[in-house]
């Protein structure tokens, strides 16, 4: 397995859990915010998927590049699941195109010179951090059955 294949496998072991976490969510719960200025549950999920897409695009292009936004904002939990699935496929496809040179290149990321591979590791950590927040959101809306934080299957 190459370094990028190992990275993708590790990232997907976390991303699969994000998909699983949405199984018990209702459309009504998508607007839940734990505090007035906090992201809603739906916004947090979109932030998780959009950020990883942005990081992958940035490494691919060698400079900060925005992630892909959904064509229309998801209104239902089924819409959100579809956005997460499409984003996961798109991001994985981008990751699979990355060359060793792109992974080694130094990228200016908000004033810091970071090798592409290190930027992707930061991206995975960012996703894990926000997934932890999402676990808390889901508990606060009353969801009792949640998956383990990482999937091995």
Automatic annotation (TrEMBL):
<protein>
    <recommendedName>
        <fullName>Damage-inducible protein DinB</fullName>
    </recommendedName>
</protein>
<dbReference type="InterPro" id="IPR007837">
    <property type="entry name" value="DinB"/>
</dbReference>
<keyword id="KW-0479">Metal-binding</keyword>
<dbReference type="Pfam" id="PF05163">
    <property type="entry name" value="DinB"/>
</dbReference>
<dbReference type="InterPro" id="IPR034660">
    <property type="entry name" value="DinB/YfiT-like"/>
</dbReference>
<comment type="similarity">
    <text>Belongs to the DinB family.</text>
</comment>
């Amino acid at each position: 397995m190459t370094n990028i294949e190992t990275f993708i496998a590790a990232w997907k072991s976390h991303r699969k859990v994000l998909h699983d976490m949405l199984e018990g969510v209702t459309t009504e719960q998508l607007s839940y915010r734990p505090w007035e200025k906090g992201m809603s549950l739906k916004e947090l999920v979109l932030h998780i998927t959009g950020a990883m897409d942005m990081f992958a695009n940035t490494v691919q292009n060698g400079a900060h590049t925005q992630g892909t936004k959904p064509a229309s904002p998801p209104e239902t939990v089924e819409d959100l699941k579809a956005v997460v699935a499409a984003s996961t496929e798109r991001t994985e496809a981008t990751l699979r195109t990355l060359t060793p040179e792109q992974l080694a290149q130094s990228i200016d990321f908000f004033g810091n010179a970071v090798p592409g591979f290190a930027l992707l590791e930061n991206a995975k950590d960012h996703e894990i951090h926000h997934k932890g927040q999402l676990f808390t959101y889901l508990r606060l809306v009353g969801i009792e059955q949640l998956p383990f934080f990482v999937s091995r299957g």
